[in-house]
Design a protein that fits this description.
By secondary structure, the protein is mainly α. 47% of the residues lie in helices and 11% in strands. The protein is elongated.
Length: 184
């Protein structure tokens, strides 16, 4: 059974630092500690959102070409569990079973393009488990958007839905019947 959980944003102490402060390597251990903490609370989380959370905690908004190599270098030293999904690294805590839960969120917490595809697949399975019926794709998309708290089904939500559907079918989580209905 797929579990619906609350999406929690990692509480990080706000520090006011400049990019130069970070590049100086004075705060490398602090950056790594924050990366670990964000991964533990928000994982599975895509790399760019993890970096954004840490960066924002230092009162900075843009990663940029000077800070990105630093962040990539530091996270690579942590040996955090990760996998590649649609050309982006997804980090997750070692105690997490992927695709066993999903977390609805408002757009200010994370956008649809920041939700891992495996989590989108979990939403689809959750809908099917809790409805005890099959769906045509259009109706399933409506339920998908509703479960993730999206009022509108823009191109990014549709893309996430389709990617999650493909992932779930490829991983034998669901199947598509001969009449194009989606079922467990």
């Amino acid at each position: 059974m797929i579990e619906k959980r609350e999406y929690l944003i990692t509480p990080l102490e706000k520090l006011i630092l400049s990019p130069e402060d970070l590049i100086s390597h004075t705060f490398d251990e602090e950056i790594k500690e924050r990366m670990i903490k964000v991964n533990q609370i928000e994982g599975p989380i895509c790399e760019h959102l993890l970096f954004k959370r840490v960066l924002n905690s230092f009162s900075l908004e843009k990663l940029g070409s000077r800070l990105e190599p630093l962040f990539i270098s530091l996270i690579s030293t942590l040996s955090l569990p990760n996998y590649l999904e649609d050309n982006e690294k997804i980090y997750y805590p070692s105690n997490v079973i992927l695709s066993s839960f999903f977390r609805p969120s408002s757009e200010r917490e994370r956008y649809s393009y920041q939700i891992p595809i495996s989590e989108a697949a979990a939403v689809i399975v959750y809908i099917l488990e809790n409805s005890n019926k099959s769906f045509y794709k259009g109706k399933l998309l409506d339920s998908f958007a509703f479960e993730l708290n999206y009022q509108r089904k823009g191109a990014q939500v549709v893309k996430l839905f389709e990617s999650g559907l493909d992932y779930a079918i490829a991983n034998n989580m669901i199947k598509e019947s001969g009449n194009h209905k989606i079922l467990l």
